[in-house]
DNA sequence: GCCGTTTTCGGCCCGACTGTTTTCAGTCG
């Protein structure tokens, strides 16, 4: 029995229990059991007694054992006999929970989206106690939105909205401080909605100006301190604003940054210290409420070091506090190893790119334009590459504060060959190999191509190793574990491509790379000078993967990297 | 259902908002 199937079954049981109107704590016990299993790194065979795990007791333990031994769960089967499966997807409707759906099923026999819609149209819902005409309208609207609204927004889409809103808030008088919070602040790949914390002594005025400045499609909720709206950018996106008093800013920011699991853990810790955390402050034993001027102070109040938003996820961060000071940070970055110029498909010249890197304070950089196979990107022929190489060597003489290295982003062709021969490659300082074509090939063929690049002694790094676009395409589906094993064997670097479109490798694979001892480079793949800024996103993505500074090659001094590349 | 250096019962993070009520349940994050 697969561990993932067990985790999903426990979660499924929780869903059905919710629809049965079970005690919410019982429901969450099943979710916690699923999470306990998921967070344990061991395989099922390696766990001797599941009930030894915190969060798994007799009830959930029995379910797990039955699943392992018989491949089924009596508990789930009984629930499924009682609760129609058509209700499960309805839990996703905004404003609909287990209790309401249970009532609708019990009173009106509603067991599917169609039945729910019909009951609304027949005005059956408003007859029930606890429901009214507004409930009916809302459900109908939700049922329609359900199909059209995108579920989660990739980070490259939310970025635009965040910038826009930041500009708006910047201009509103009476706003003393503001920040984006939520999963965006934690640098998740995708976000369900955006959260902003706004500190102000004049909430009514600020709220009014804020709402007037946004392209609002719909107002979901509008209270004194909380405003939820659907805003029209590229897509429709839900945004929550919290208007708080200036002294509450830090605790509110922390609260709405989450994650939920992180907050629960911290609140439990606070409780053990006879303190109570809310978004307004920390209530002390004597009833007074402490507020803070920084999150660092806030954490220190509980005897904790500052925990960066990027690692506030499943609660395990509290067990890894000692690793936090070693996590890679933006100021550790000494170089960018992947960027393009007007020689191929970049927007800026060699000189402009060099100046932009200098002004970021980098100690070295690598120019890596595309190779000739990539005709749409005006890829360089061997002749042009060598000409560029010469120009870079010449330009480099002009700078004493930055070392400009000559490289390439060379295509791994569909037939598995490389776009430049060894003689050309041997003249470069840094060689990137990457796949830009024939993504649909079977995995074996993709892996063959990757292996060719791995075996070539001139290749130093594999760029965007899976070819994914966050929230849009999954890439060419390589066997990443195998890829990392090869990288280890052949001494290659794997890239963390910092472009918010890519963030490739993903978190789970970066964790795997670090475990296997495969070094990582965080690169922007910039095609214009302003794109060098995405290094910050890449570094946060790296933190999320718990990458330590020393594991990231572009935090190394150039001499150390050169030494490494020789091997 | 799970948990326990105040334990085997009584908590389980905490508060806002909505729509229904006429003081609160349900949902959400």
Name the descriptors.
567 residues, alpha/beta, DNA polymerase, domain 1, Beta Polymerase, domain 2, Beta Polymerase, domain 3, 4 domains, 7-stranded parallel beta sheet, 5-stranded mixed beta sheet, 21 helices, globular, DNA-binding
The SS-based structural class is alpha/beta
The domain tally reads 4
What do we call the CATH topology of the largest domain?
Answer: TIM Barrel
For the record, give the distance between the C-alpha atoms at the N and C termini, rounded to a whole number.
43 Å
Average pLDDT taken over every residue = 91
Strand order, sheet with most strands: 11-12-13-14-15-16-17
Oligomeric state of the chains present here: single chain
Please, how many helices? 21
Q: Tell me which CATH architecture of the largest domain applies here.
A: Alpha-Beta Barrel
Strand content: 5-15%
Q: Determine the CATH superfamily of the largest domain.
A: Metal-dependent hydrolases
Number of strands: 17
Extract low-pLDDT stretches: none
Specify the biggest β-sheet: 7 strands, parallel
- The outline comes out as globular
Helix percentage: 40-55%
Highest CATH level, the class of the largest domain: Alpha Beta
Radius of gyration: 27 Å
Domain DNA-directed DNA polymerase X: 1-313
Domain Helix-hairpin-helix DNA-binding motif class: 48-67, 88-107, 123-142
GO molecular function: exonuclease activity
Pfam family, one: DNA_pol_B_thumb
């Amino acid at each position: 029995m697969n561990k993932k199937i067990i985790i999903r079954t426990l979660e499924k049981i929780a869903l059905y229990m919710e629809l049965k109107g079970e005690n919410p704590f019982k429901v969450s016990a099943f979710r916690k059991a699923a999470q306990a299993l998921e967070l344990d790194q061991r395989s099922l065979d390696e766990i001797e007694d599941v009930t030894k795990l915190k969060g798994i007791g007799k009830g959930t333990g029995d379910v797990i054992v039955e699943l392992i031994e018989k491949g089924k769960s009596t508990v789930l089967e009984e629930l499924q006999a009682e609760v129609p499966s058509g209700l499960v997807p309805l839990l996703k409707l905004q404003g609909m929970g287990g209790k309401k759906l249970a009532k609708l099923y019990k009173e009106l026999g509603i067991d599917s989206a169609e039945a729910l819609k019909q009951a609304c149209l027949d005005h059956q819902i408003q007859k029930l106690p606890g429901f009214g005409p507004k409930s009916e309208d809302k459900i109908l609207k939700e049922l329609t939105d359900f199909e059209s609204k995108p579920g989660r927004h990739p980070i490259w889409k939310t970025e635009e909205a965040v910038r826009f809103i930041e500009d708006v808030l910047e201009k509103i008088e009476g706003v003393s401080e503001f920040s984006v919070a939520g999963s965006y602040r934690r640098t998740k790949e995708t976000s369900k909605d955006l959260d902003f914390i706004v500190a102000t002594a004049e909430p009514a005025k600020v709220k009014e100006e804020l709402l007037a400045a946004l392209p609002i499609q719909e107002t979901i909720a509008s209270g004194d301190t909380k405003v939820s709206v659907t805003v029209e950018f590229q897509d429709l996106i839900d945004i929550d604003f919290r208007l708080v008093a200036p002294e509450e800013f830090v605790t509110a920011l922390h609260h709405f940054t989450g994650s939920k699991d992180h907050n629960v853990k911290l609140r439990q810790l606070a409780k053990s210290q006879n303190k109570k955390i809310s978004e307004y402050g920390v209530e002390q034993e004597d009833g007074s409420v402490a507020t803070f001027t920084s999150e660092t102070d806030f954490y220190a109040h509980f005897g904790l070091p500052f925990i960066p938003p990027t690692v506030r996820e499943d609660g395990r961060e509290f067990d890894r506090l000692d690793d936090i000071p070693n996590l890679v940070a933006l100021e550790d970055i000494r170089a960018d190893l992947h960027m393009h110029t007007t020689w191929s498909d970049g927007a800026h010249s060699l000189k402009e790119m060099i100046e932009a890197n200098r002004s970021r304070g980098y100690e070295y950089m690598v120019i890596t334009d595309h190779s000739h196979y990539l005709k749409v990107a005006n890829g360089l022929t061997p002749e042009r590459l060598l000409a560029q190489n010469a120009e870079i060597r010449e330009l480099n003489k002009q700078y004493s504060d930055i070392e400009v290295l000559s490289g390439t982003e060379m295509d791994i062709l569909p037939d598995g060959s490389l776009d430049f021969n060894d003689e050309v490659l041997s003249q470069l300082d840094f060689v990137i190999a990457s796949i830009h074509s024939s993504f649909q090939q079977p995995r074996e063929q993709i892996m063959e191509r990757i292996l060719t690049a791995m075996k070539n002694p001139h290749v130093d790094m594999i760029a965007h190793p899976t070819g994914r676009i966050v929230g849009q395409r999954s890439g060419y589906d390589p066997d990443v574990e195998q890829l990392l094993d090869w990288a280890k064997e052949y001494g290659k670097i794997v890239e963390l491509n910092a472009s918010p479109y890519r963030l490739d490798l993903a978190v789970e694979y970066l964790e795997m790379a670090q475990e296997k001892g495969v070094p990582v480079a965080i690169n922007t793949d910039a095609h214009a000078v302003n794109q060098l800024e995405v290094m910050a996103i890449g570094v946060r993505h790296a933190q999320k993967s718990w990458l330590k500074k020393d594991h990231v090659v572009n935090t190394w001094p150039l001499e150390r990297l050169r030494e490494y590349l020789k091997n």
